[in-house]
Amino acid sequence: MNDYLxxxxxxxxxxxxxxxxxxASILLGPRNPNSAKQAAYECGIVPESEPAERFPVKFxxxxxxxxxxxxxxxxxxxxxxxxxxxxxxxxxxxxxxVLVLLIPFxxxxxxxxxxWGPVAQVIREIVPVRRTSVAVLxxxxxxxxxxxxx
Length: 150
Description:
The protein contains five helices and no strands.
C-alpha cells in the first residue's frame, strides 16, 4: 500500500486543483453575457452561412496522427524511467513500438497531408512541379548530349 501512496496523493492533488479552478472561475469570473458571448466560437470568424463543404480528409488525418503520436509520447515517458532495468529486451521492444507508431506519420508525409498553407507555397517555389498528361523529356537534364541513347 505504501508504494501506491504517492500515486493516490497525486490523484488527490489533481482533483483538488480541478475543483479549485472551477470554483475560482465561478466566483471570480465576470457575469455579463451578451449575444456575442453566447454564440458558438469559430476561430474568431463570425459565420455568415452554413458551410458549403465538409472538412477535408487531410484535417482528420492530421488530427488522428496527432493523437497517435501523443499516445506514443505518453508511453515513452515510463519507458525512459525504467530503461536501465529492461536491458536489451526493452530497447528492442521500444524500437519496434516507435517504428510501428511512426508509420502513420510517414504515411501523412508521403501523401502530402502535412504540406498545406504557407509550407506548401514555399515548397512549390523551391521545387517547381511540371505536370503534363504525357511524359516529357526535360532538356535541362540532357544538356551537352546529342539526344541519342548511349
